[in-house]
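Summary for the steering committee. The consortium agreed at its last meeting that each partner would contribute one worked example illustrating the joint modelling workflow. Our contribution is presented below. We chose a case with several input lines so that the handling of multiple components could be demonstrated. No manual editing was applied between input and output; the record is shown as generated.
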Amino acid sequence: MSDRVLITDAGFGPVDPAERYLDFADLEAAPGALRVDLGPETDPATLTPHLAQIQTIRIAFPAVSDGRGFTLARTLRRMGFAGRLRAAGQLIPEQYPMARACGFDEVEIDAARAQRQPEADWRAAAGRQGYLARLRRPAA
Amino acid sequence: MYAYSDFDESFVRNRVRQFRDQVERRIDGRLSEDEFKPLRLMNGLYLQLHAYMLRVAIPYGTLDARQMRQLATISERWDRGYGHFTTRQNIQFNWPKLRDVPDMLDALADVGMHAIQTSGNCVRNVTSDHFAGAAADEIADPRPYAELLRQWSSDHPEFQYLPRKFKIAITGATADRAVTRAHDIGLRVVARDGAVGFEVSVGGGLGRTPMIGRVIRDFLPEADLVPYVEAVLGVYNQLGRRDNKYKARIKIAVHEMGLDTIRDLVEARFAETRSEFPGAEAALAEIRAAFRAPDFRAGGTAIPSGSPAFRAWTDTNLAPHRREDHAIVTVSLKTPGQQPGDASADQMRAIADLAETYGYDEIRISHRQNVILPHVRKDDLPAVFEALAAAGLAAANAGLISDIIACPGMDYCALATARSIPVAQEIAVLFETLDLAHEVGPLRLNVSGCINACGHHHVADIGILGLERAGVETYQITLGGDPTERIAIGERTGPGFAADEIVGAVERIVTAYLELRDSADETFAEAYRRLGLAPFQKALYSEESRENAA
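What follows is the complete predicted structure of the assembly.
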């Protein structure tokens, strides 16, 4: 779907219509996939043998109230995943800085949401930082 | 007392600005109701039975005179001239208008207060011992740790959309006055080989499935507090059930998966998080400096003599201070007949004045819905008592049967199935009229107006739970609950009682206790542990006892 919108720190952009994502369930049958879709319930440990060659992981957010994807992203980063991490689905502008702080690079939403929640709302929310950055600051 | 840093100040101001914008976006449709609801809740705003309700955070129950006066002002300007102190050491305003809320939040920010994360499926206000920093039995002041956790949890990017709410309580004393084992995480300061750390319990909670927290770590070094709690939350966020909100708390995960499984998962995650907070130590040091004890003025170590009313009050409403020439004063918000936990604007100002004049500008709110003046010179007690009496705040009943915890119940709350305030009022008035409360001695009586148990009925000597059966209010009784370090969930006595029977039922229980106790020194809790449920059931349900009472 080319009318989906990709949100990065640079603002709104189009999703590359040529991108194809492999379902996580099919990963064993097709090792070497570059782009993988994950549901929020995924046990990240099952990805260990594949992490090195995956370029992009797209994590589904099935509802605004479902924050599992944030923890999944943190876990993948802790496991050393250095590729692209995308949060996709039901997210609101308030969740953009949360996604970034949890290790996501970008957020993908559908056209209807992009129209209802325009770029300015996402820009206004971006960059918000709470206390955590201070607690994670290097020791003096 | 902890004073806001520039960072706190700008964080809170930004949140108010953001909330103002969120209200706008809800009104013009950019946010749907489903999207706005978690934002509204994590800013403290509930939709209640008759109106919105704003729940203001009083972190670990600590505030100063300036803040108390501002609460008074807010209650007069945007509410009905009073506020309701809660079992989570917060204050609720029951009648705000949605369009006024951002202004109320700005007024709070003016005195370093906010309503952040007092509601919603996130880490809630961290609660603590209301005698913190003053108690004679304290190992370490728990408030710096509570403040550290407040900072850590505020707007934590990973944990704002949890399966369900998450409550943390911490105590630094040997007596547990914070009901820590009834929290998702309970922390108890312990010393081992000269080092300070925590005993950590998980999976406690009241509500419809009451469970006592289980010890997941018997000693957690102080430096590991933030990364360990981060690990617990990470495990919970991933595994907590999202298919059924009644099974979504961490206590259900612990129950279904087993403590050992949860512990292994937490420890594995903790191995990763442990090195992620190099700034926590410096933050704790800064916070601790801000919690410096006041410059105490020395005085006499005896309680001055006074009228019988003064003596009755000092008998019940004082607790031992760590200095012999000071005492901890409980200001009862339970004058028989009043709504438990409510304070008028004038009463809030009277308390603020006393805190300033006699209390080193320190005030606490207790989970028993009273106000505490933690540091009062014994020499000043008569003056404090006189001023409290003038403000209608000198009820000599702290810890007695009329010192009732009660949730707002059906008079305010959208979830309630029965009224709780009138029941509490009638019981308090009855024992006042009979002049029996002092004779009965220490007794915790708590009332909840629904199964969610905000009134802590499970952990009361006498717990009352209001339910609705076929359109009629009915009240179930539990006995033998205990909120302290001996924590216990009360046992149900049997069938419930109608609204016009419940007060008489309580009277029969108390009468039975007075007849059965070894001596006046045996408290209700002790007598119950010795005798068990049976004699009280007999008093409640036998034909004979009902006739005698009638």
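Chain A is about 25% helix and 20% strand. Chain A has one domain: 5-135.
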